[in-house]
């Protein structure tokens, strides 16, 4: 019992009820222990709420076990009494004794095996066909259970493999390679500041573009009015402009080919001039060599 009571607890109805219930429980436990030890001294133990709870559970389980054992004993006694009171037909007893006495040892063993098989298979009789069907059914059930067990073992192995893989993935995800860098907050702040600056610049440029005058047509094709396209003169003018555009495109392509010949020159103007002079000197040397070879051929 709890001896650490305060004056407030003594005048508390709920605390008083709890103490009375606990005292009754301890009285029942002590009575049960005296019954179990049958006159022997009860061992000393610590008395607290945890011990009381454990002893109550133990006493309840013990009482249930005693009731079950008593019920089984009563059923067995009733069954034995019923068997003893059953009248045995003298003719059946005589036939049984005759068969038993005339059986060979091998026949006796066979009869015992047949009876044991019928009891093990829980068949209502010892008919061979019934025993065979029951045995086949048990064999089929055993085979099915064996297959299911193999399937469950395979599934368990697969699940264990997946669990190991997931644990490995989790361990790799918890490694320093996947941890957040310490500089991430600073980078986030910098990116946010740059985003705000770019947004303000974008609004500024949009305002400047809005204040610019509309662009003038750079091509004479755009100077043709849509109303002039319906007339023959307008169509002829459009064809002429298209021809000019084709000529202009060919000229641009030719200029691009000429410019492509200088693609290996340096971007610096002075360096490009030096490279051109160097190539000119090489060209003059090649020309002189060519002229010398030509003169040699003429002399021969």
From TrEMBL:
GO cellular component assignments: cytosol; HAUS complex; microtubule; spindle
State where the protein is found.
Answer: Cytoplasm, Cytoskeleton, Spindle
Q: Indicate whether Nucleotide-binding appears among the record's keywords.
A: no
Cross-referenced InterPro entries: HAUS1 (IPR026243)
Keyword list (alphabetical) reads: Cell cycle, Cell division, Coiled coil, Cytoplasm, Cytoskeleton, Microtubule, Mitosis
Q: Which residues form a coiled coil?
A: 48-78, 238-289
Question: A GO biological process this protein is involved in?
Answer: cell division
Name the domain of life this protein comes from. Eukaryota
Give the similarity note.
Belongs to the HAUS1 family.
- Recorded protein name is HAUS augmin-like complex subunit 1
- Organism of derivation: Lepidopterella palustris CBS 459.81
């Amino acid at each position: 019992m709890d001896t650490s009571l305060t004056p407030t607890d003594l005048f508390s109805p709920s605390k008083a009820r709890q103490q009375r219930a606990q005292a009754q429980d301890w009285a029942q436990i002590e009575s049960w222990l005296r019954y179990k030890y049958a006159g022997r001294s009860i061992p000393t133990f610590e008395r607290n709420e945890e011990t009381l709870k454990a002893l109550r559970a133990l006493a309840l389980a013990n009482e249930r076990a005693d009731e079950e054992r008593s019920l089984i004993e009563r059923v067995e006694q009733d069954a034995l009494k019923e068997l003893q009171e059953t009248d045995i037909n003298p003719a059946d007893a005589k036939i049984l004794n005759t068969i038993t006495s005339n059986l060979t040892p091998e026949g006796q063993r066979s009869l015992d095996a047949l009876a044991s098989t019928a009891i093990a298979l829980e068949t209502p009789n010892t008919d061979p066909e019934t025993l065979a069907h029951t045995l086949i059914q048990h064999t089929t059930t055993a085979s099915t259970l064996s297959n299911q067990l193999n399937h469950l073992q395979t599934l368990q192995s697969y699940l264990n493999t997946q669990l190991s893989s997931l644990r490995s993935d989790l361990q790799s995800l918890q490694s320093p390679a996947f941890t957040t860098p310490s500089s991430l907050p600073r980078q986030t702040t910098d990116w946010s500041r740059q985003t705000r600056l770019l947004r303000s610049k974008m609004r500024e440029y949009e305002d400047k573009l809005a204040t610019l005058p509309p662009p003038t047509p750079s091509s004479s094709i755009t100077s043709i009015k849509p109303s002039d396209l319906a007339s023959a003169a307008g169509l002829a003018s459009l064809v002429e402009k298209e021809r000019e555009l084709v000529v202009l495109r060919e000229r641009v392509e030719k200029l691009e080919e000429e410019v492509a010949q200088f693609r290996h020159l340096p971007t610096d103007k002075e360096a490009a001039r030096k490279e051109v002079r160097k190539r000119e000197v090489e060209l003059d040397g090649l020309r002189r060599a060519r002229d010398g070879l030509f003169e040699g051929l003429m002399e021969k």
